[in-house]
Structures are given as structure tokens and as C-alpha cells.
Design a protein that fits this description.
By secondary structure, this protein is of the alpha+beta class. Helix content is 31%, strand content 18%. It has six helices and nine strands; from the N terminus they run H-H-H-H-E-E-H-H-E-E-E-E-E-E-E. The strands form two sheets. The protein has a five-stranded mixed β-sheet with strand order 2-9-8-4-6, with helices on one face. The radius of gyration is 41 Å and the shape is elongated. The N terminus is likely disordered.
Length: 321
């Protein structure tokens, strides 16, 4: 019993005399290996490093580039070529299937709300129209923008491309949706003092600017539900006397029913949106005057406060002398 206990005690000791030399031997080998590597690294010069990089880029003995042979490069390039070719084909096939489901004449899903939005011309850098009457360079950009916009409304162009329609009723055209539709004439001369014919500066040279108002196009929309949509403009905030006089052209200040419905750009190719011109003949000078123009009529929404374009438009004048 004593002998067994003694042997077990000797085996259980953590630091036996046979174990210490082995650990020291391993440690000496590790130290010598580390020292050898450090010696080799210390002996490497920049020339050796550059030569190793050259051999990595092109090894003439093994004929490898970046560690790969020509066959290896050919196989990997072929793999990626086939992979991306399949991906491109899959993408093209998906796009083709999607296009087949679309209607070229009317959008399948319409993100525009039924009530129309409103936009003005000229529109240069924003909704603040600021200029000095005594400085033509400040208002000429607005005048040029108006002339460019009204080029399609010239009387000769309208008489050549479009037809005369019966006022006060919708111009509904039957037939297949792919058939080209006729458009009603809206002549530039209907805008009178804001047509740019008699006064090429649209009143800007006198501090009496003209603004053109148009509704956004919505396919199939019959504006006003049988009653023409009218326009009203007034000072949005501030003193009402800042805007003393406003003239509208046409004088009815309405969008006639004969210009509706709209059938889309693919079939209604010569369609020109009807306009209402607003001539601000007496606006307070050297002062910031915010203006709000609203549409009024059946089905029109113009009181959504977080949408300044739905059924209304807000802009401002700052006219200096």
C-alpha cells in the first residue's frame, strides 16, 4: 500500500524531473526557430522584396502570373463570363416579361391622384419671381421662358395641327385606344395682353408681370364634372391691398371642357394643355408679396395644407423699381 501511494504521488506531481527538460528543450527550439526567421527577414533587402514581387507578377520558370498559370486564368475567366452572361440574360428576360404586361397607351398603375395639380410658367429657379424693372437682365429670363413655352401655342401651329371644337362640352373620341386622337385648338391669341404678341415682354418691363396657369394632365380625366373649372388668385398672407388689380385671360378665367379628356401622349400627340393667363397689373413694389391661385370646381381638392400643388399653387412676387 505504501509503495502504490508513493508511485501515485510521484505521478500526480505537476513538476516531475522528467517533464522539465522536455519543456526547456521545446522552448529552446522555438526560440531558435524565431531567431532564424528574424535573421532571414533582417537579411532581406529592398532588391529582394522587389524581385519577389516581380516573380509574383510573372514567374518565368513556372510561367505563372499572380500565382496562376494561363490555363488556370482561362478557366476562371470563362467561369465568370458564363456566370455574368447568365445573370444578364435572366435580367433581360425579366424586363421583357414585365414590358409585355404594360399598356403603352395608359399606365396600369397611376400614382397621380384624381384631382389635378397646378403649375405656373415662367418657372426659372423657384416660385419667387423677383426682378427690377430698371434692369432688363433681371426679367429677360422670365420673358424668354414664356416665349419658349408658348411656341407650340402659336396661332399658325394650332391651325395647322389641331381642329376647332365646340366650346362648353367634352371632346370624347371613340375607337380603339391605339388610334390617334385629334386635339382642340388653343391659340396663343386667346391670352390677349399675356400672349406676348402685342407686348413681347409680357408686362415685365412695366412691373406688371403675366403668369400662365395650367393643370397637370391626367389620362381620361373630365375636369369639373360637366362644369368648367375656374381660377381665383389672391394674397396668401399679408395685406390684401398688396394686390389691387388682376386680369384673367380668357376673361371667363376657366379651363373649357372641350380640352378634356386627355388620352395620353402616344395617341394625343398634338395636345396642348389649356391655359389661364393672370395679369398682375397692380402689385405692391419693393415688397415680398405671396400669392395663392386656386382651382374651383366639382371634384377639385384645394385645401390640403401639406400639398402646395394639389388644386392650388403658391408663388411670390418681389418687384423692384
Amino acid at each position: 500500500m505504501d509503495m502504490n501511494a508513493t508511485s501515485r504521488g510521484a505521478e500526480g506531481q505537476p513538476g516531475s524531473p522528467h517533464q522539465k527538460p522536455e519543456n526547456k528543450q521545446e522552448q529552446r527550439m522555438q526560440n531558435s526557430g524565431r531567431e532564424g526567421r528574424e535573421e532571414v527577414m533582417a537579411k532581406k533587402t529592398w532588391a529582394d522584396v522587389i524581385q519577389e514581387m516581380k516573380n509574383f507578377l510573372w514567374d518565368p520558370e513556372n510561367r505563372t502570373c499572380l500565382g496562376r498559370t494561363a490555363k488556370s486564368w482561362g478557366l476562371i475567366l470563362l467561369f465568370y463570363f458564363i456566370l455574368y452572361l447568365c445573370l444578364a440574360g435572366l435580367f433581360a428576360f425579366c424586363m421583357y416579361i414585365m414590358v409585355l404586361t404594360l399598356n403603352p397607351y395608359a399606365p396600369t398603375y397611376r400614382d397621380r391622384v384624381a384631382p389635378p395639380g397646378v403649375m405656373i410658367r415662367p418657372y426659372i429657379h423657384g416660385f419667387t419671381i423677383a426682378f427690377n424693372v430698371s434692369e432688363p437682365s433681371s426679367w429677360l429670363p422670365y420673358v424668354d421662358s414664356m416665349h419658349r413655352f408658348l411656341a407650340d401655342y402659336n396661332d399658325t401651329v394650332q391651325e395647322e395641327k389641331n381642329i376647332e371644337c365646340i366650346a362648353g362640352q367634352y371632346f370624347i373620341q371613340e375607337g380603339d385606344e391605339s388610334e390617334q386622337k385629334r386635339a382642340c385648338q388653343f391659340k396663343r391669341s386667346l391670352l390677349q395682353n399675356c400672349s406676348g404678341i402685342e407686348d413681347p415682354t409680357f408686362g415685365y418691363s412695366r412691373g406688371q408681370p403675366c403668369i400662365l396657369l395650367k393643370m397637370n394632365r391626367i389620362i381620361g380625366y373630365q375636369a369639373g364634372a360637366g362644369t368648367p373649372v375656374s381660377v381665383d388668385c389672391r394674397v396668401q398672407k399679408g395685406n390684401v391691398s398688396d394686390l389691387k388689380s388682376v386680369d384673367f385671360y380668357p376673361e371667363s378665367r376657366t379651363f373649357d371642357l372641350m380640352y378634356y379628356p386627355y388620352y395620353g401622349k402616344h395617341t394625343h400627340v398634338n395636345y396642348t394643355s389649356p391655359l389661364v393667363a393672370i395679369h398682375f397689373t397692380d402689385v405692391k413694389k419693393n415688397y415680398f408679396v405671396p400669392i395663392q391661385c386656386k382651382l374651383n370646381g366639382k371634384g377639385i381638392v384645394n385645401d390640403v395644407h401639406n400639398d402646395r400643388f394639389l388644386g392650388r399653387i403658391i408663388f411670390a412676387f418681389n418687384i423692384g423699381m
